[in-house]
Design a protein that fits this description.
Order of helices and strands: HEHEHEHEEEHHEHEHEEHHEH
CATH topology of the largest domain: D-Maltodextrin-Binding Protein, domain 2
Strand order of the largest sheet: 2-1-3-10-4-11
Radius of gyration: 23 Å
CATH class of the largest domain: Alpha Beta
Number of strands: 11
Number of domains: 2
Structural class: alpha/beta
Strand content: 15-25%
Shape: globular
Largest sheet: 6 strands, mixed
Distance between the termini: 74 Å
């Protein structure tokens, strides 16, 4: 009987340990922090690994930075609700918030605009000089390319007639084409230019800038507890008031984050409908 009793205790002990391990494993599962690929994965990692560490400290829960090699793959992961929270490009806002149910927390304060960049020593001096030229572009995921085309029309340039477009998988590839003189200009979101210049040690020149629309937003999946959602929001909003936070903002090329007003993104909803 004694041996049988000890065996039962041993089995109960092992079962308890296994259950505890499962619970701890689930609790320790890191939050997946997605960032849409506006730069190469390596460049984004330099920016967002320190940010992820800060978020881990703030939440008391490990945060793992992740991105994708291109926007369609990022959108696919977002659509599968893989990310616990993510920084998304503006046109993904209706998809993430309206269709998937992600909750918007904050956005970059400045509006995003489309810029047409040329090399510092380019002979092009005005938008009219773009006629007959080759312009590299990021993927046509709007609103960046759409905004640029709208600006071309305002300057008397017919986008599909006067310009030859050279599509690329990423904004970084687009800017690389410009540096290699394989294109006369590159269309890019304004926030991506400065990080690229700093990384490559070059200086580019803005030939044309479009009107602006609401910028990148941080959205969070409803499965993240409300207490952590509130901490996330406060963390991003607080960066403009601390030295480490200001370093993060400088790397992101912004003055700071502000709370999201959902109505601000109605213009992106219109863009999304037009692109269907």
């Amino acid at each position: 009987m004694r041996i049988r009793y000890q065996l039962i205790l041993l089995i109960l002990s092992i079962t308890t340990v296994c259950r505890t391990s499962v619970v701890m494993g689930a609790a320790e599962k890191p939050y997946q922090f997605g960032v849409f690929p506006y730069l190469s994965p390596l460049r984004l990692e330099k920016i967002f690994e320190p940010i992820s560490q800060q978020l881990s400290n703030s939440l008391g829960h490990r945060v793992k930075f992740t991105t994708s090699t291109n926007l369609p793959r990022f959108r696919e992961r977002l659509g599968s609700e893989y990310y616990d929270f993510a920084i998304i490009q503006p046109l993904l806002y209706p998809f993430a918030v309206d269709q998937l149910g992600y909750i918007p927390l904050v956005r970059i304060e400045e509006e995003v605009s489309s810029v047409v960049m040329v090399s510092a020593d380019s002979p092009l001096t005005s938008p009219a000089d773009l006629k007959g030229k080759t312009i590299a572009t990021p993927p046509v995921f709007g609103p960046v390319v759409a905004l640029a085309k709208s600006s071309f029309i305002e300057h008397g340039i017919a986008p599909d007639k006067d310009i030859k477009f050279m599509p690329n998988k990423t904004v970084g590839s687009c800017l690389q084409k410009l540096l290699a003189a394989l294109a006369d200009a590159c269309i890019a979101p304004n926030f991506a230019v400065q990080p690229f210049e700093q990384t490559m040690g070059v200086k580019l020149r803005t030939l044309l800038r479009s009107k602006g629309v609401p910028n990148q937003a941080l959205v969070v999946h409803p499965r993240v507890p409300q207490s952590d959602r509130e901490r996330l929001q406060q963390e991003f909003l607080s960066w403009r008031f601390s030295a480490p936070g200001k370093d993060f903002l400088q790397a992101l090329n912004t003055r700071g984050f502000v709370k999201v007003d959902d109505d601000d993104y109605d213009i992106l909803r219109e863009f999304a409908r037009e692109l269907k």
